[in-house]
What does this fold into?
Amino acid sequence: MSGTSADFSQWSTARLAEVERLLEQWVPAAAPAGLGAAMRYAVLDGGKRLRPLLVLATAEAVAGALPPAGAAAWRAACALELIHAYSLAHDDLPCMDNDVLRRGKPTLHVRFGEALALLAGDALQALAFELLLPPEASLEPALMVRLCRLLARAAGWDGMAGGQAIDLAGVGQLLDQTRLEDMHRRKTGALLLASVEMGAVASGANESALQALGRYGRALGLAFQVVDDILDVTADSATLGKTAGKDAAADKPTFVSLLGLEAAQAYADRLLAQAHEALEQAGLRRADHLHAIADWVVRRNH
Amino acid sequence: MSGTSADFSQWSTARLAEVERLLEQWVPAAAPAGLGAAMRYAVLDGGKRLRPLLVLATAEAVAGALPPAGAAAWRAACALELIHAYSLAHDDLPCMDNDVLRRGKPTLHVRFGEALALLAGDALQALAFELLLPPEASLEPALMVRLCRLLARAAGWDGMAGGQAIDLAGVGQLLDQTRLEDMHRRKTGALLLASVEMGAVASGANESALQALGRYGRALGLAFQVVDDILDVTADSATLGKTAGKDAAADKPTFVSLLGLEAAQAYADRLLAQAHEALEQAGLRRADHLHAIADWVVRRNH
It folds into this structure.
C-alpha cells in the first residue's frame, strides 16, 4: 500500500504474504472440471486485500499481538476475502456490470465463461463458511458460530446482496444522500464492518471495544466508497486495475455526482476524522495499524 | 406426494404445512429493491420439498417423535430448501440451462430479470447459513457448527457446485457410468445426503446410525437422479412442472442414454432395495416415513 509509513508497509507486507499462502492452500485446485482453476483465478494474486488486513489489524489491536498460526483471525481474514472475490465475480457478469477488466486482468467470465464464473462465485461463498468451521475442533464452537453469523448477515439480504439490489434499481435514478449511503452501507460497508467485527470477536474483544470498533468500521466503510467514487472520475484504468469512469458512464448515482468533487473529498476527510476518533475510544492495546488503514483508504490513488 | 400410503400422505402434508409457514416467516419480504420479492418467488409455494421432508423424517426416525417447535431440525429443513432453491435459480439462468419453466411457473430470471435472479440466489445461500445460526442461543453452538459444516460442504466445490461444473463440462461428452455417478453424487446427491445427515445430527444420532443413514442417503440420492433421467424421457412438461426432454435435447449424458430405459429402471429398483436395507441396519425408533420417501422417489411420476 503506497503512501503509507514504513512501519505499516512492513506490517502489511508480512500479513499479506501469510494471507496469500493460506488462500493458496485453502482454495482447492482439486475442485473438478475447471471449477478449482476458476475459483483460484478469482481469488489468488490480486486485489488490495483490504478486508483481510482489517481483520488482522483489528485482531492485533485487541490482543496486542499477532494472532498465532491456526487462530480464528486468519480464517476470518481469508473467509472475508472469498466473499469479496465471489461478489466481484458475480458483479462483473454481463447481466450485472458486464465488466471485462478487474485487478488488471480479464474478468473471471471473460477467462472461464459465464457459467463457470457463476459457479465459482457460488462455490466461493460456501467455502468462506467452510473455512470458519475447521473440523479438527481447533476453534471454540461458540466462536465459530459468532464468526459465521457475522459473515452470513454481512453477505446476505440485509448486507452486501441487498446493497447490490439497491444499486441495480438505482441506475439512472436520483438517489438523495441518505439513500445513497444506505446502499453503500450494505453493498460495501457491511463486509468492511464485518471485517472489523470478526477481527475483534476473534481476539475476544469486550462489548465497549466492539461498539467503538463498529463506529470505526462504519466510518471507514463509507469513506472507502466516497473515495471509490472520487477515483472513478480522477484516476485512469491502468492505475485502478479496473475500468475507470464506468459508474458515471452507467449513469449510476455517486457521491461525486451528488456532492461535487470538492465536497466529496471534504466528506471523506470528515469520515476519516471520525474513524480516528472512534479508535481513540476503543481502549485498544495498539491502534497504529488501524489508524494507518484508515489513512490509506482515504489517501490511496487506486 | 401421490401414490403413497395414507399414513405417509397425512404425515408429509402436516410437515410441509409447517415448513411452508416457516419459510414464509424466514424469507424476508423486507429485503430491499425487489430482492425480497425475488427470494420469495424462488422459494415459496412450489416444489416437492424433498429435502425438508428427508430432514424431518430422519430427525423423527432417530428421536422417535416430532422435533419440537424451534428445534434444529426445522431450521435445517428450511436451510436445505433455500440452498436447493438458490441452485435452481442459478441453474435456470441463460448462461447455464437457460430454462423458462420451473414448478409450473416462469423461472426467476424470466419474472425478475437475470441480475436480480443472480442476487436472489446469492442471498438465499447466505440466508441458509443465517437460519442455522439463531442468535437467541436456542441451539447448542456445537450443534450449529456441525449443521453449518455439513451444509457448507454439501453446497460447495466438493458437493453441489462441483457437480454442476462436471455437468457443464460433460455436455456432448460420453461419460461412463462411474463418472456419471460421480457427477450426480455431487450435483444432487450431496444435498440429499446432507438432508439425511443434518436431520440425524439434529436429533443426536449415534455414529452407527449415522453410518447406516449415510448409506440410505447415498442410495436415495442416486435413485433420485436415475428416476429424474427416466422421467425426462417418459413424462410431459405439464406433469413435471419443468421442461421435459431437455437433457436429451441438450445432449447431456443420462442414465437412460447410458443404460437404456429398462436397465435404468432396474437400477433404480436395486438402489431402492439398498435404501430399505440400510434403514433396517440403522437401529431407528421408527423408519416408516424414510421407507415411504424412498418408495416415492422411485415410484413418482414427476
Remarks:
- The beta strands of chain A are 101-102, 105-106.
